[in-house]
Amino acid sequence: MSNSNRYILEAINLHKSFKAGEVREHVLRGLDLRVERGEFLAVMGPSGCGKSTLLHLLGLMDKPDSGSIIIDGQDTTYMDEQTQAAIRRRKIGFVFQRFNLLNVLSGYDNIALSLKIRGLDTDGIDRLLASMGVAEVARKSPEKMSMGQQQRLTVARAIAHKPDILLADEPTGSLDSANTQTVLEMFKRANEQDGLTVVMITHSPTVASAASRVVYMKDGKIIDGNT
Ligand SMILES: Nc1ncnc2c1ncn2[C@@H]1O[C@H](COP(=O)(O)OP(=O)(O)OP(=O)(O)O)[C@@H](O)[C@H]1O
Ligand SMILES: [Mg+2]
Predict the structure, then answer these.
(1) Which of 32, 114, 159, 202 is most exposed, with minimal Cβ within 10 Å?
(2) Are 70 and 76 in contact (CB under 8 A)?
(3) Strand locations in 37-172, DSSP E?
(4) What is the pLDDT of residues 93-126, one digit of tens each?
(5) Residue 136 domain flag
(6) Whose CA is nearest to atom 27 of ligand 1?
(7) Could you report the per-residue pLDDT of 35-83, keeping only the tens digit for each?
(8) Domain for residue 14, yes or no?
(9) Is there an atom of ligand 1 within 6 Å of 51 CB?
């Protein structure tokens, strides 16, 4: 049944506010977004408009004040946290601007840990690293890797468990143009070959042009590019 859903990810009328001292900042203001299965979507918009807030909600890392997140046809609104966590672990991969790799572990073991947390076997890691062009970092600690190597490893880790959706928050924000291209090619390959749906926040129109669709956010809503 789930494969017949056209949309892998839907956000419906999301509202989210944060308390900043005495005042409440209303960040998302009735945001709607639908992402088709297999899309590569870029999200752009001015700093502070709520892009990262949206990504956290889409990834079930935080809860909206109201509105719904529907993942693969399942409305997550009234799910308990354990059920949400299970969906997050199984169906979603994350890449952030900062790499969040563990320096006490090798590149290989950073991925192995992520798979073991999910109860998955670790047989394919060397093949995955080789296919991503980072075979040489398998035995290195992340702190001894270049920025580009760290981000390639981060992307490999994010997709090793074969999620349906990759959520990326400024994944190329700390990379030079050569490494930016490499990361975009990794996203494209996973998108085209494995049908991975990608939602990527970026400030760069050049980076956004790698996506198949771009939506623009302002004042807590999508103002352009919605289907
Ligand atoms: N956990 C939080 N607690 C309080 N305020 C928050 C929290 N997260 C975000 N905000 C506020 O919400 C607003 C939107 O932040 P968000 O990080 O979503 O913006 P953004 O569009 O990702 O910006 P940038 O492009 O600079 O990354 C900001 O004013 C921010 O201070
Ligand atoms: Mg942000």
Answers:
(1) 32
(2) yes
(3) 40-44, 66-71, 74-75, 92-96, 165-169
(4) 999 888 889 999 999 999 999 999 999 999 999 9
(5) yes
(6) 47
(7) 999 999 999 999 999 999 999 999 999 999 999 999 999 999 999 999 9
(8) no
(9) yes
- Answer whether 210 contacts ligand 1 (Cβ < 6 A): no
Spacing, Cα 17 to ligand 1 middle (Å): 10
- Degrees to nearest 5, angle at CA 152 with 109 and 203: 135
Tell me, yes or no, whether 69 lies in a domain. no
Quick check: is 31 in a domain? no
CA dist 59 and 165 (Å) reads: 9
Residue closest via CA to ligand 1's atom 6 equals 18
Give me the domain span that covers residue 57: 39-64+78-224
Number of other residues whose CB lies within 10 A of the CB of residue 78: 7
Confidence (pLDDT) at 2? 47
If you measure from the C-alpha of residue 50 to the centroid of ligand 1, how many angstroms do you get, rounded to a whole number? 6
Number of domains present in the structure of the chain: 1
Instruction: Tell me, in angstroms, the distance from the centre of ligand 1 to residue 19's CA.
Output: 12
- What pLDDT score does 10 carry? 97
Share of the chain above pLDDT 70, in %: 98
Question: Residue 173 maps to which CATH number?
Answer: 3.40.50.300
